[in-house]
């Protein structure tokens, strides 16, 4: 299957996810209008929609309705957007550029950015809990449980805390500690994105676990690739400031292992991720291609 097929599939998915986000985050004309404007600014347009694409492709393995998968994809992209809005704040990474445009606190103000992030997170769970997402309340509850776990203190938020503590301590982390930090901060949400389609499709436990394991290895490779990009890409290529990890003394596998060994580690993880898809046949070819894409991308 040519790489152009993956490019086209990801572009189509990104378009559909943006359309779903526009529907789920309509413009408001009342006094809350600035909040909705900031939420839409943070969430709609730009980004690879990697997490949403994982949801759609995972759901496709089990014949899940596209409309239901798009709602889950949009919810996860809302949570991802919220994390970026808060991560960019002066109290965190203090970034001015995200996805090639000013960060939310620069385009609006800090207070609005904080509220926009909060609102995106809570609205994501509203979307998952609504009957339009799935007729089975047990499935909806499982989606809520898994996303809250991936985003919470044992997931994304916990990883951000570890990142901040490591930076404040100004002491090098070993490979195990860096791996745990990155698994929590980035990997858990990618894991759930890969698993979510199996939850929607009420898949057998073995197939659900296979997608989760795929997402775990893909997420680890993605984070290493992100660190490599920070060290090698220009701000124009990445759509955000680069070189900040080294300046801030942040713990990354690139900093610990060097570029060549980090690339080898990412390549090993990509091979492992593909191995988890053996039970899905040709239907999972786009997911296999996505594994290669995450370490070849330049943005």
UniProtKB/TrEMBL annotation:
InterPro entries: Isoprenoid_synthase_dom_sf (IPR008949), Polyprenyl_synt (IPR000092), Polyprenyl_synt_CS (IPR033749), Prenyl_diphosphate_synthase (IPR053378). Pfam families: polyprenyl_synt. It comes from the Bacteria. Its cofactor is Mg(2+). PROSITE patterns: POLYPRENYL_SYNTHASE_1, POLYPRENYL_SYNTHASE_2. Keywords: Isoprene biosynthesis, Magnesium, Metal-binding, Transferase. Belongs to the FPP/GGPP synthase family. This is Polyprenyl synthetase family protein.
